[in-house]
Xylose isomerase
Amino acid sequence: MNEAFPDIPKIQYEGPKSRNPLSFKHYNPDEVVGGKSMRSQLRFAVAYWHAMRNSLSDPFGGGTAQRPWDDGSNSVANAQRRVWACFEFMEKLGVDYYCWHDRDVAPELNTLAESNAAFDAVADELEKAQKQTGKKLLWGTACLFSHARYCQGAATSPHAGVFAYAAAQVKKAMDVTHRLGGEGYTFWGGREGYATLWNTNMKRELDHLARLLHMAVDYKKKIGFTGQFYIEPKPREPSTHQYDSDSAACLNFLREYGLLEHFKLNLETNHATLAGHTMRHEMQVAIAANALGSVDANTGDELIGWDTDQFPTNIYLTTEIMLEVLRMGGFTTGGLNFDAKCRRESFEPVDLFHAHIGGMDAFARGLKVAHAMIEDGRIDAFIKQRYSTFDSGIGAKIEKGEVGFAELEAYALANGEPLLGSGRQEMLENLVNDYL
């Protein structure tokens, strides 16, 4: 097969003074930060659906993307050819992982049996490419939202036949993920929600969603798949409300249905924005429950009301993300998957490189700044001091559960109005800018 990117060399680290747009200014994969190489700390992944399949259409116009390796057909041969374009892209970019939806890597044909056979044929090529290049599958997932059968949901559809079809599709996607040595498997409920409550039995739909996930847990054990299960939150779009709306909702759902021990969260910045949260908020909620597994590395435009899936270039954002990752001890599963696409105006193949280079450099800078913050210790020391009244005395007794209302009333009567300390928000924001 001819090269998909014949005019683009392997991207090298050239340092911040380089003027070569096809080079890394900050991402040096072998540089050690926080006791690990950047490659190990960041664990970058290419999102197959955006890098290889996204046509760059939007609600007001058709696709603009130029993909000369793709003949535009829905054939298995075209899908197999696309595999090698993706792995050439990863090789030249120096990214070790990729992620896919089943219907991105292989075509959906007239019957489930035909689609499964096509998936197996493309998986043959994926397996060859992985062995040839050493690249790995970070996680796989099933696309349970694009086909018309899923217009009213998949696991939450009011039609049992749709539930059965979705379960069969998940089973096959798990089989292929397991075959390819995938390190995880993600569940994203793109249409698991409702448009109106006038036609919805919410409790029944949530019960059905939990039933599918319990089936997946059982099947995971049956086939010996040891990868991590993830749920990816998103509050809305296309549905009015989606059941996996944010970190807190997902964790509550998992606890209610006895699933928390089997799942972690795959968090996305753009979805946090749609939920009215910051990415850092979503990460802290997940980390507090020991449930942060992986990150979809993108960002959204707060002036646009949909999921724009832009590449992250804001160093403040990447610093906040990496600060939380480092504080939890680094990724033990998952990584940074670029669930992001070029802008519709950036349609040439080389733009895929520019976009990923920018995101990788932004996260490399964020990693270094976050590590410097932790090493310096001033922010952590301030937070520790702010809560120091809970380290001893009445505060320690509160945290240990040794006092109740009567004891606290007596304390308040004896000690009078409590003394407060300033939150020093402005000082801390200035300090963050000093690190940046």
